[in-house]
Design a protein that fits this description.
6-stranded mixed sheet; 25% helix; alpha+beta; 606 residues
């Protein structure tokens, strides 16, 4: 009898242990059948579904949710047409309670897909931001869906969806953002990333500030770190804000804000440990895209890179074993590409803000411009299997990739305009283009990356050019000057900053036309031409001529006349303006029969 009692007690203990080991379980199905091999996690533990699509784990339930990593070839179910239901909030944080959460997938061929990656919407029910957002980004996304046709298309927003200080002040928080996306009929799946302005500012500084400040995001939006696969690409979303919210003596804060809303740029240890487990399930040949708010790398004035996060090196050492890694980030409201030499497989793309200068240049002049001169925009990524391509897409400027300045007219403005003179007097550290040399040219190549070609041609002469770190003149017109003229000051929060993608050349005359050719990573060619003198005003972009590669004679068409122009150059009878730049249709540095063939191909395609 004693042994029977002992055995019974052992079975009770075993049953208790098994229950604890399976305090979180469920099944993932598609079309009524279980999906095997799907990773499921609580942010600490990762388990795989079995042959029947069933999962079970021991969870500490600390994060309060469970999520799965979407496998390639599937899509999640959506709420409100855009909100992926790849996660579920837990019923209780009591780890002794077992609960079940099931998920349903739908099968789709997404080996080829498009991902629209934007950042920093900063919606706050102020400055007509929601109206601008609807007319701008939402309209562009609808265009992208139409352009994609029947192809798979998704989107990622890299944080600062809202603006924390206005959660209470303007009664606009994360819930309002999600409701707006439903109201605006956000037209594709949205994978969100948390930003510093998406943390709850009412949480006072303390031992658990960071964890408590993400509770609203986790309850309303989704987990603050997770992963998913689209086709053959693995995407990882991380929260790289350690929220502090320190209240400083003598400082006063608005209602609903407990401190200064400050933070450190870092990835918490729990995320690092989870990331190692997540990537252990990913083949090293799989392209990996890591989505952050704060960039891992900063770009310096001499175009080198420095670590931005406390643990940038830890992150990159984990990623460096993979053949191709892209980090996409926002936060800075500007464009730059970082290729740190120590990590040859890693490229970071810091993406300009969809809100421009926090909507302020739009309010003042109707022009949506970021502080580095980039237009408000996003990146369009096109994926075909493991082949990734990307391009910057301005929200309000079509497919333009650059802006060309005739600095003679910029100099005249700086010398004669009373407002800019007052600004330079009050803020002497600002760049004074009134002193620039005669016949200087500058070009802002919005999404310039190492390896791109930038060629500036005056008439038919190619000019030496150099990359420079200085202020973009257009943002000064779009924000600084009109703001100062009406208010007698401007907010340093929005002012023009130095751009890392400006190029400078010295022309010989003040009147010859200038043509600029930009060739990107993938061999795409962009051509702009200006007549000189070229206007320096808010409508200057409309005065540029966009040329199509192959339109050698610049008449707006690609036809037999362009073939004749290249042939004339080859036999030495050409008299066209800038023939070398335009006749080198494939941008390989030579004008030869290959360029003629390229034009013929273009004619046949049309």
């Amino acid at each position: 009898m004693k042994r029977i009692i002992q055995l019974a007690m052992a079975l009770v203990l075993l049953g208790t242990a098994m229950a604890a080991a399976q305090n979180l379980s469920g099944t993932i199905t598609c079309e009524g059948h279980g999906v095997a091999g799907v990773a499921v996690s609580d942010g600490y533990t990762i388990v795989l579904t079995d042959a029947d699509g069933h999962y079970a784990m021991t969870s500490n339930k600390r994060n309060g949710y469970v999520f799965y990593t979407l496998p390639g070839g599937y899509e999640p179910m959506l709420a409100d047409g855009f909100n992926p239901r790849f996660w579920a909030p837990l019923d209780t944080r009591d780890a002794s309670v077992h609960e079940v959460h099931d998920f349903t997938l739908r099968r789709v061929d997404n080996e080829r897909h498009i991902v629209i990656i934007g950042a920093d919407t900063h919606l706050a029910r102020r400055s007509s931001d929601r109206a601008y957002f609807k007319k701008g980004l939402i309209a562009n996304l609808n265009d992208e869906v139409e352009r994609a046709g029947s192809g798979a298309i998704y989107s990622i927003l890299l944080g600062d969806l809202t603006w924390d200080v206005f959660w209470t002040q303007n009664d606009y928080n994360l819930g309002d953002f999600m409701a707006d996306m439903a109201h605006f009929n956000y037209p594709m799946t949205l994978w969100p990333v948390i930003g510093n302005h998406d943390h709850d500012p009412s949480i006072p500084a303390g031992d658990n500030t960071d964890e408590e400040s993400v509770a609203a995001w986790r309850d309303i939006v989704c987990p603050n770190y997770y992963s998913f696969n689209l086709g053959k690409v693995h995407y990882v979303v991380l929260d790289d804000i350690v929220y502090l919210n320190i209240a400083y003596p003598g400082e006063s804060y608005s209602e609903g804000v407990a401190g200064s809303r400050n933070y450190r740029g870092a990835i918490t240890n729990e995320q690092i440990q989870w990331l190692r487990k997540d990537l252990a399930l990913v083949d090293h040949a799989t392209p990996v895209v890591v989505c952050l708010h704060i960039p891992a790398w900063s770009i310096t004035s001499n175009f080198n890179y420095s670590a931005r996060l406390d643990n940038t090196y830890t992150l990159c050492s984990i990623l460096n074993d993979y053949d191709e890694v892209h980090i996409v980030s926002g936060h800075n409201h500007c464009n730059y590409t970082a290729e740190p030499a120590a990590y040859p497989h890693i490229t970071e793309h810091n993406i300009a803000a969809t809100c421009g200068s926090l909507w302020q240049s739009a309010v003042i002049t109707g022009h949506h411009i970021c502080q580095d001169g980039s237009p408000a925009g996003y990146m369009r990524w096109t994926i075909n299997g493991t082949r990734l391509q990307w391009a910057f897409k301005p929200i309000h400027e079509g497919e333009r990739q650059m802006r060309v300045y005739d600095m003679n007219t910029v100099r005249d403005f700086y010398r004669t305009n009373a407002t800019i003179k007052a600004i330079l007097n009050e803020y002497p550290s600002r760049v004074n283009y009134g002193n620039i040399a005669d016949n200087t040219l500058m070009v802002n190549v919005y999404a310039f990356a190492p390896g791109w070609q930038v060629t500036i041609c005056e008439g038919d002469s190619i000019l030496p050019s150099q990359r420079v770190y200085t202020e973009d003149p257009y943002h000064t017109l779009a924000y600084d000057v009109p703001r100062y003229a009406t208010a007698g000051y401007y907010s340093t929060y929005y002012i023009t900053t130095n751009s890392t993608h400006l190029f400078k050349a010295q022309a010989a005359t003040a009147t010859k036309p200038v043509t600029v050719r930009v060739v990107d990573t993938f061999g795409n060619v962009y051509l702009h031409r200006i007549a000189r003198p070229h206007h320096y005003n808010l409508d200057m972009e409309g005065k540029e001529t966009l040329l199509v590669p192959g339109d050698v004679n610049g008449d707006g068409e690609i036809n037999i006349a362009d073939i004749n122009a290249v042939v004339a150059l080859l036999i030495g009878t050409s008299s066209q303006s800038c023939p070398l730049l335009l006749a080198d249709v494939n941008a390989d540095g030579e004008v030869n029969i290959a360029d003629v063939n390229k034009i013929i191909d273009s004619i046949l395609k049309n």
